Amino acid sequence: MLYIILLTHAFQYKYVWQHSSNELPFYYVFSAMWAGQEGSTLLWMFWIAIVGCVLIVRAKSYESGVLFFMALAQVLLGSMLLAIYILDSKLGSNPFALLKDTMDIPVFKMNPNYVPADGTGLNPSLQNYWMVIHPPTLFLGFALTTVPAAFAFTSLWKREYTQFANAVLPWTLLALLVLSAGILMGGAWAYEALSFGGFWAWDPVENASLVPWLVLAAGLHTLLAYKHTGYSLHATYLFFLSSFLLVLYSSFLTKSGVLGDSSVHSFTDMGMSGQLVVTIFVFLVPSIILFIYRNYKKQIPAKEKEEKTYSREFWLFIGALFFIVSALHIIVLTSFPVFNKLPFIKNKLAPPSDIISHYNNVQIWLAAFVAIIAGITQYFKYTQTETKAFYKNFIISTILSIVCSLLFIIPFKIYRIDYILMLITAWFVIFTNAEYIFRVLKGKIKVSGGAVSHIGFGLILIGIIVSQGKQEVISLNSYGINYGSGFTTEESAENILLYQNEPQKMGKYLVTYLGDSVGEKNIYFNVLYQKIKKDNSFGKSFVLSPNILINAKMGNNPVPSTRKTLTSDLYTHITMAPLKEDGSQPDSIIKDTYTLGIGDTIMASNAFAIIQGINANATIDGFEKKAGDVAVGIQLKYIDLDTQYIIEPIYFIRDMFATSIAANSHNNQVRIAVSKIIPEQNKFEFIVEQKLNKYIIMKAIQFPFINVLWFGILVMLFGIFLSIQKRIKDNKRLYAKN
C-alpha cells in the first residue's frame, strides 16, 4: 500500500510528500519506502511476517513458543504505526497520515482539498543503488536475529534443551549471513556515495548495527561448543537473547533522535522514545527473569567439570568472549549520548576527541586476538588435543604467516606494532584454516563452511589494514593555498585547487580539470589523469568524473568517482566547486565597478592590477586625434601568476562626448575600462569584466589492495552459506532417523 501511494505520487500523504518527488526514478521509489521511520518499521514487520511463515513449517516442536515471540515483536512494532493518543501520549506514527491533518498551515484552511504538485524529494545521499538493496537486507537480518532469541526463550520456557542446538543452528547462521551482507552493503554504499573517504566511519548508527552482529557471532561459536560437548549453553542463551535486545536498542538509538548531534544517519525524534524503551523492556525483563529462574533451579544443563585448555570448546568460548569485549567497547562509547540523558549523570560524558582513531586502536587488537583464536581452534579437537601435534602445526603456520606478512610490511613500510600483529594473525587464520580444509577435511569444500568463512575473515583483516592503514592522500596542497574558514588546517593540506585546463602534478599523475558536463541531476567535473613515467613521458591516462548531485530542496550532495584496478583504488571527490545557491553554475563573465585612486589595486581572477599613474596624452591604436580631443590613459601594472606588464585603458572626450576604450589582459581573461574621472577626489571609476576561470577543489586518495577486503567479504559469506547448507542436511538426516 505504501509503495502504491509512493508510485502514484499521492502527495496528499505526508510520507509521500516528505520522501519522494515527481522526478524520482522508478528504482529510487523503493528507497523512498524506507527513507522514513514509518517505512523502515513496515519493512521490518514485512520480513518478520515472511520469516514467521517459514517458521510455521520449520520450527517443529518449538513452533508455539517461537511464533509467540515473533508475534509479540510484530505487535510491538505494529504499535509504532498506530498514531493514536492514550492519556495525551501519542502511540506510534502513521505512514498514511494526510498532510492536511498533520500540518497547520493557511493553505489547508483556505482549501482543505489542496494537494501539493510535488514532494520535497528523496535525501540525495539515499539516491544510490546500494540504498535500494542495503536497507531491505539489513532489516531482513534484524528480523532473522529475532529467531535465535525466540528459540532460546522457548527452550528456556519449555525446558526443551536436547534439540535446541540442531534446531537453532541453521537459523543462527542464516541471520549471521544476512546481517553480515546488510552491514557490508552499507559499507560499500558509504565507500561509493559518501565523501569521508572510506567504508566505515564508526558512526553511532553503523556501530549500532555492528554490535548485534558481534554478539550473534559469539552466540554461534558457543552454540557449536554446546552442540559437540555440552559446554557453554548458559552463554549461548545470553548471547542470543542479547543480540535481539541489541537490535531493539539499535532501533532506539536510530529512531529516538538521541544521536541527532552525533550521527548523520539517525532520524529525528518523533516522540516515540518512551515507546521504544517499553518495547525493549517487554523482552528484557521476562528474558532475565526466566534465565535467572532456570539457572537458580539448576534446570539448564551444564557440565560439572571445566573445559580443558587444550580443547576446541575452551577456545571457542574464549573467542566468543573477545567478540563480547569488542561489542561492549563499541556500545558503551556509542551510548554516551544516552547516558548523558540520564538524570543522575551530573558530569556529562564526552567521547575521546579523535573517536575514529580510538576505535581503530582498540578494535585492531581485539580483531587480532580473534584471528589468533580462529586459527589455533582448528588445531584443537573437542574434549582433548595432543599438545605435540598442536605445537608442530602452530609453529609451521606461524612461520609462514610472518613470511607472507613481510610481503606487505616491507613495501608499504608498515611499522606500527598493532598493524604488524594484525597482518600476521590475518595470515595465520588463513593458513591454519586452509590446512584444516586440506589435511583434516581432505579438501571437501561442502563441509568446510566454517574454515572458508574464517579464511574470508583473514582476507578482510588484510584488506582493512593495508587499504586503510596505508591509504595515501595524493591531492596535497603543495602551494599552501588558504581555502578559507570552511576548511580545517588538515582539510586545506589534503585538497588540491585545479583551474580549468591548467595541469598540475599530483602524486605520480599530471591532472587537468577539463571542465564540467551537466547531466539530468548531476554536474560532472571531468578530471584527466596522466600517469608520469620515470623519463617524464606520459603513460596510461583516464578521466574521473566526481560529481555533485543537485537538490535545491535538500542540499547538494557530492558523489565520489573511483578508478578501480586490481591492486588499488583511486578515489576522488569534489570538496568545493563554484555553484549558485540553486545548484546551477555561475555566470561565465562577471562585471564589477571600482572607484580607486593612484596606488590602489584592482583584484582579478588569478591576477591583480596596480594603478601606477596617468598618461595625459594617450594614443589610440588606429585612431587619429584632432585638436581639442582629450585622451587620458590610466597606466596599470598587470600582474598574473608568472608575468607582469603595463596595460592602459583610455578615457577619451571629443566634442563633450566621453568614450571608454578598454584594455585587455594578454590572455583576454580580464577587460578593464575607465568609465568616469572624478577630479575632485583624484579617483577614477573602473569597470572590470573578467571571464570566470572555472576551478574545483578536490581530494584524491589511493587505497592499496582494497579488493582484498571485498574479496574476503565474498569468501566469508560463501563460507557461512556452505555451513547453512551442511546444517540443513544434517537436520534432515536427524529428523529422518527420528
Task: Characterise this structure.
A hairpin with a 5-residue loop joins strand 20 (663-664) and strand 21 (670-678). Helix 5 (63-79) crosses helix 8 (130-158) and helix 10 packs antiparallel against helix 11. The protein is an alpha+beta fold and 738 residues long. The protein has 20 helices and 23 strands. Strands 5, 6, 7, 8, 9 and 10 form a 6-stranded antiparallel beta sheet that branches. Strands 14, 15, 16, 17, 18 and 19 form a 6-stranded antiparallel beta sheet that branches.
From the structure above, extract its key features.
single chain; 6-stranded antiparallel β-sheet; 738 residues; 48% helix; 20 helices; 19% strand
Summarize the structure.
By secondary structure, this protein is an alpha+beta fold. Helix 4 (37-58) runs antiparallel to helix 5 (63-79).
Number of strands: 23
Uncertain regions spanning at least 5 consecutive residues:
none
From the spread of the alpha carbons, the general shape counts as elongated
Number of helices: 20
Mean pLDDT reading: 87
Query: How much of the residues is beta strand, in percent?
Result: 15-25%
> How far apart are the termini?
45 Å
Query: What is the alpha-carbon Rg in Å?
Result: 33 Å
Query: How is the biggest beta sheet arranged?
Result: 6 strands, antiparallel
> Share of helix among residues?
40-55%
The structural class is alpha+beta
